[in-house]
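ok trying again, last paste got cut off:
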Amino acid sequence: MTPPDVFRPAAVDTGTPPGGGPPLLLLHGWGCDGRDWAAHLPGLRPHHRVLVPDLPGHGATPDRPDRCAPREVAADLAAWLRDLGTGPVVAVGHSMGGQVATALAVEHPRLVRSVVTLATGYGGDAPDAATRLPAEQEALLREGSAWAVRFVRRAFTDATPPAVRRRHEGLMAATDPAVLARYRAGMYLAPGAFGRRPAAEAYLRRRRCPALTVHASPATAAWDRGLPAHPRSRVVLWEGAGHFLHEERPAEVVELLRSWCTEPR
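nice, full thing came through this time. structure:
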């Protein structure tokens, strides 16, 4: 019987293909779940062991109320990866999942071969962030799911397929607002959060492995290019893509990951 303190997320584990590439850990964003990566699995599983967990409080994984900051989630994932015996993984994260993947690389470097982050903007550079983020947190706690659904709609663009819009509106409506609030606090408002600049700049300097960063915002891509980085790191701009770019362009993401994993490290 599994001890109650051992983290066991609900997860897809495709197993190791013969002669495959490095294992991939695919991490979803805030208010999402592992099904975000369903369209990517057919192109990845013949070449890689692919691990796709639902993060706590999302999908089918029970909530862990005291462990919602990216470092804490990363620590739980590190214990899970050690238990599975995966060896170093390529940690891939969308949005909030990119923060978790970064924390995994910084705090548990022996478990991470490289990092890929998709639309992880670290709070952007909005001058009103110091007042806006607490106000949004209050609105989320006050209005609950209705606010969360309105918020996710702001992430859609003309590039977002209708099916993706409907799925994420449904996920936000179904996720406990208290869970959403705890994760937002862990990313942006709690002591030690690195979701905003300059905290993000200081934290990313501690990342020693190669990183592939994909942005839809030219301004965020330019900011990212100005940070100190591993010599094999790259920043890619997909201008015109929406926040859910991995679901808008799944075939391109698969091609990007396959190419990244075959480059010499």
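cool. DSSP finds eleven helices and seven strands in the chain. Residues 131 and 227 are 26 Å apart (CA to CA).
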